[in-house]
């Protein structure tokens, strides 16, 4: 989903002058508030910001947002989501797959 925020020009200029991408800062603020209000999970924040689990935990820590206390079932569900995402990204960059793509074929050896 994509939304557009309308920010008055003078405020947008001050935000831009403070450094960083205003769009990214707005997305991070929404993510932080969602996590504080417990309307977003750690995994959802990770996906929203394009961060790993560890990077997401660091991001929350830098903004003084403690990790939520969750029950065992929620913890298992979150762990499964991160594991599935991790397996998906690992398969794209699996060493054997990369090696196969670098192995010369007979036709390339004779060239």
Question: Main β-sheet: number of strands, strand sense, barrel status?
Answer: none
Which class of secondary structure composition applies to the elements?
mainly alpha
Helix share of residues? Answer: 55-70%
- What low-confidence regions span 5 or more consecutive residues with pLDDT below 50? 93-111
Give the topology string: H per helix, E per strand: HHHHHHH
Radius of gyration: 21 Å
> N-to-C terminal Cα separation, in Å?
49 Å
Strand content: under 5%
**Kindly state the mean pLDDT as a whole number?**
78
How many structurally independent domains?
A: 1
Query: What gross morphology would you assign?
Result: elongated
Q: What's the number of helices?
A: 7
By DSSP, the count of extended strands is 0
3D structure, described in words:
The chain has about 110 residues and is mainly alpha-helical. The protein has one domain (about 10-100). Helix content is about 70%, strand content about 0%. Helix 2 runs antiparallel to helix 3 (about 40-50) and helix 3 (about 40-50) crosses helix 4 (about 55-60). The protein starts with 8 loop residues before the first helix and ends with a helix. The relative contact order is 0.07.
Task: Give a short synopsis of this structure.
By secondary structure, the protein is mainly α. The protein contains 7 helices and no strands. It has helices at 9-17, 22-36, 42-49, 53-62, 72-92, 95-102, 106-109.
């Amino acid at each position: 989903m994509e939304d557009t925020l309308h920010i008055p020009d003078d405020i947008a200029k001050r935000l831009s002058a403070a450094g960083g991408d205003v769009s990214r800062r707005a997305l991070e603020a929404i993510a932080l508030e969602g996590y504080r209000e417990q309307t977003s999970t750690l995994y959802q924040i990770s996906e929203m910001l394009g961060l790993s689990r560890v990077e997401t935990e660091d991001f929350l820590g830098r903004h003084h947002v403690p990790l939520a206390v969750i029950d065992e079932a929620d913890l298992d569900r979150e762990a499964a989501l991160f594991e599935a995402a991790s397996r998906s990204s690992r398969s794209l960059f699996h060493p054997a797959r990369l090696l196969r793509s670098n192995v010369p074929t007979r036709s390339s050896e004779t060239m």
